[in-house]
Amino acid sequence: MRDSDQSMTPSNRRSADSAAVPGEEASGPLPSRVQRIVALARLEWIDSLRSRWLQFVALVYVLVFGTFIWLGLRESSVLGFTGLSRVVLNVANATVVAVPLVALVATCQAVAKARTSGHLEFLFTQPVRRSDWFLGLVLSRAAVLLGPLVLMLAATAVAGLLSGAEDTALIPMVFHALLVSSSLVLAYLGLGLLMSALAQTLERAVVLALLTWLASVALHDFALIGLLLQWRVPAPVVFTLAAVNPVEAARLAVLASVDPELSVLGPVGFWIANELGPELAYFFGLAWPATVGTLALLAASHLVRKGDAVR
């Protein structure tokens, strides 16, 4: 027996070892990378649970839903919607303002903090790619931002079905609200991580995030209103200037899903409904924020892969 062991060549010994462990030979680089990404995402998830910004995200969502559930129980209608469908419609309009804020708060310090604390320097001494860590960070932040929103919208849909009320608009409204929220989360998740990758300090990252949120939800509208008061601007130009902002594009998607005529937008809405149509306007309102977020994520990933691990 000992002679037979000694007569085995190195190649035969390797093949015997691989045969002794079922499935080891089948494990290639893809499963190992997936395992690394999952482990890093779990690490970032656990770190998120210890952060105060997670409590801020939960508080904002609870306040938004609590306020509009109370309003939805009142005997009035918005664009013909009553009850829970009105709740979801108002929540969709509120998330257009709230989601950018919570997404920027959750992401603006992620890369900058990992650099200044030495977390990246320690992590990259392990057999971990920078792109793996960044993808794990994105997945964990997306889960934190979208998870509570999906649960609350699903609970609203279930409550509407169990209540027995004949509200045919509830399920489509929940679906549209989820799509709009997901598109906005992707947009400002990417923008927040891009600003975090560009910022030299945590304070600068926070300032950039707040300025971005103010420009998206307030300053852009004020500038556009001032332009309209000063000059007579054609409807296509107004639409282009407004739709560049992901928040306005998402608001257009919400309105197009409930009001195909877009009458609340006045002459600009008449031009959109006749030239683009409600379907194309709705698609643009979802696609443009997602495109902005994807491009921002690619730029942030490039900065993380090529930049310094410590600042």
Order of helices and strands: HHHHHHHHHHHHHH
On the 0-100 scale, what is the average pLDDT?
Answer: 77
> DSSP helix count?
14
Spans with pLDDT under 50 lasting ≥5 residues? 1-8, 10-31, 75-82
Number of domains: 1
Structural category: mainly alpha
Q: Cα distance, first to last residue?
A: 61 Å
Write down the overall geometry: globular
Helix content: over 70%
Radius of gyration: 25 Å
Quaternary state reads single chain
Percentage of residues in DSSP E strands: under 5%
Largest sheet: none
Q: What is the tally of beta strands? A: 0
Task: Indicate the topology.
Elements: H1 2-6, H2 10-20, H3 29-49, H4 52-72, H5 83-107, H6 110-116, H7 119-123, H8 130-163, H9 170-198, H10 202-230, H11 235-243, H12 246-258, H13 267-276, H14 278-306
Write a structural description:
- With 311 residues, the protein is an all-alpha fold.
- The protein has one domain.
- It contains 14 helices and no strands.
- Helix 5 packs antiparallel against helix 8.
